[in-house]
Amino acid sequence: MNEETAYSSNSVRLSPGEWAIVLPAFLIAVFALFPCLWRSLEDVPVGPDFRLAQDLRDDYWLYRGCTEIACRRCPVVFLGDSVIWGAYVDNDNTLPAHLNRALGEDRIANLAVDGLHNVAMEGLMRCYGGAIKGKRVMLHFNPLWMTSRRYDLRGGQEPRIHHPRLIPQFFPRIASYREGFLTRVGIVLERHIAFLRLQHHLRLCFLDNNDVASWVLEHPRGNPFERFSLSIDAAEREKQNDDRSWQARRIRKHDWEWMGFEESLQWASFERTVDKLDASGNEILLVIGPFNPYTMTDESLERFRRVQRQVTEWAEKKEIPYFLVPDLPSRMYADASHPLAEGYALIAEEMLADPKCREWMGQ
Amino acid sequence: MLFHSREFLVFFIVVYVVYLSVKKTRFMNLWLLIASYFFYGWWNPLYLLLIVYSTAIDYLAGLRMAAAGRKRAWLAFSICNNLGLLGFFKYAGFVTENLNWLLGQIGVSYVLPAPDVLLPVGISFYTFQSMSYTIDLYRGRLQPERSFIRFASFVALFPQLVAGPIERAGALLPQLEQGPRVRLTDISDGLSLFLVGLFKKVAMADFLARYVDPIYEAPREFGRASLILATYAFAWQIYFDFSGYTDMARGVARAMGLRLSLNFNNPYTATGLRDFWRRWHISLSSWFRDYVYIPLGGNRKGKFTAYCNIIITMAIAGIWHGAAWRFVLWGGVHAMGVVLTRELEGSALYGRVPTFIKQVLTFHLVCLGWVFFRARDVGEAFLVLGRIAGGPAGGLREAPIMMFVMILAAWLYQIVYNSSLQGVLQWRPVRVGLVLAMLTYLVMFATPAHEPFIYFAF
């Protein structure tokens, strides 16, 4: 057996000099040039108010790109979770859509993301929200995230934490989050390496969130490489209005414990998000609620009113204009926090009737 | 800890940095041993007790064979100990199960309790490696290793600990003694080998497994075409899986300046079963040749005895793979194939058969063996064969076109590599292009599923 055979049974063998050229060139091409090139060539047609498709809610590459476009086109951006994104309504019935219609133009970009609790929102703004500078920002505060230890990510193991890739991986420690060390390191790397986000983006948009092998097994005759294109359709299209109220969904009354402001992780993150947006030269309008008072026991409702008061007092102290969403009629809620289309219309009406809001919006 | 995991990447970076600084010192083997035991203990720290015990016994046996002169007794002690360990941990359940069946057949109602023991990863590999040391020592081919640390490093060397190649003491111990020299070419060769192995495992083997597994887990639900395709796919899956592991193991060792033996040499280009076993799991087949087949008499006592020796050796090789009758039958198929090949090779007619035809026939004979290897038990293996031979055509699981493309590309590459056109594959643009293609696929399109290697189960 000669030396060549003993080395291996193939000819794929590069010399030190060849590796010294090939490997750095490959790494530069993939990790530096490819993301820049893709970003500059990719066409992301979003709807007029930038509401992203629900399937793409974890696509932070796309979110960053959309945020940059939205900040160029719209004077106001609306940040929040599924309540603002519009979990039970179609594109025409979200709160930003109602406001835009009432204002007669697409002034407000819906940059809310489904499932974006406050801790995740802080991560989103810190890592991918750099374009939101010197803007008018409507910032939603959803009391839901402070209702219990579980929502506050402190109550044992949370079966499903939304947006785990946005929450702090090491400090502060989040009791509900139980990922392994190397997964956490991988997530931190993804925040700093654009290619990793692009890879996730491509799989999400073109391969149904699969790798090539999985996609091929599901589509035996398909060519996965044919699917990649520089134009993606990121706008939400499939969502239909779901008009069932919380009673029709048989949601029972809860005795929420409500977290104290000093101890709440979600609140601490929310405060830091406000500070970050403020430091970036944004003008903030805080939108507190909506929240369904009919799904609470009397004791819990009392505690909820205290939370509302504390938030408004905090906003006043920080001189942040706010709009406290009034209680809607019971039939207008889909669950504990999401309104139905009719509810959003009413909130928009109330906001535009509020002098502080009108003034903030420059009306 | 799998080679294609992030844990291994972190582990290897730490180990390698320290290794480079201690490789010419007396701490090298100690460091290798610590790293190897950490690597092995990652699966289950309890396994370490067994490997330390096995190592200590063979180390002691080696020293006593040199000192006391009762070489045969110490060799017997070493072999009994190794086979005893292997027998207890690997075959106790199998033996009990068969004894219970036998007792049932003769009307005894007593049922032996099934032993509840964990099969330590890689036990078949390191016991064979360790055993080859005492046998070679007995044969006078080696001097006893005086350093326990070095001997333990030889037995437990992490790149090849859990699935080979099964190294001979005569090849590896001197490398550990001299302190390897790590040149730039070792690093580049190691990188090349590792990349090819990683691609074979992640892009090819794991992909094929996802087609094969559902079919072989429920063969009754599938028709002839799917079972044939799944068998072909498994043939390539196990090749990519095991040779991928070996490439990575050799790459890791190479980067450390250590040379491990070639374990696979394009086995599906073999022109006969004898040729196949010179190309497939070479370190195991040569182990059985040197320590079983030749001591049995090899081909020195006539054709009939030689064929009996082949059948015995292949049956043992079969059961080495796993404690189940299907592995014995797999060995039996190969034994028959080797005997048949030897007979055919002696005939003038066979010499005129085109190489390509021989390769195709050999591949199909190997595939026949793989049915026993992959099926869950003997009954299912015959069920698969029955359905392939005359079962319904329905129950089709469509095979991805990409699967055919991959297999065809790999096969063509090997054909060309073994032909006079090999020079084309050594042309720089081809080599660089292949490296870039593999890197691109791995980095951009593949997700390591962290599927264990098939041979870890043995």
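qc> DSSP finds 19 helices and no strands in chain B.
qc> done
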